[in-house]
Amino acid sequence: MLEEAVKGFGSVDILVNNAGAYEYIPLEEITNDHFHRLFDLNVLRTILVTQAALPHPRKTGGSVINISSVVSVWVC
């Protein structure tokens, strides 16, 4: 997708990371698989996409914006 954006627009000046998921599960019911699935989606993929895109906004003085939600401050 990044390559297509660069082909179509010439560069990527801004990246907005605004995808994520949350499933309410009581703390004692969270499995390793569940934790890693959500961590991979919400954290790892954000890092990987940002790493892939970062050279473009650096060249143009652009920005990377990471959007979170109130779920990130939810406490058990």
Automatic annotation (TrEMBL):
Protein name in UniProt: NAD(P)-dependent dehydrogenase (Short-subunit alcohol dehydrogenase family)
InterPro entries membership: NAD(P)-bd_dom_sf (IPR036291), SDR_fam (IPR002347)
Pfam families from the UniProt entry: adh_short
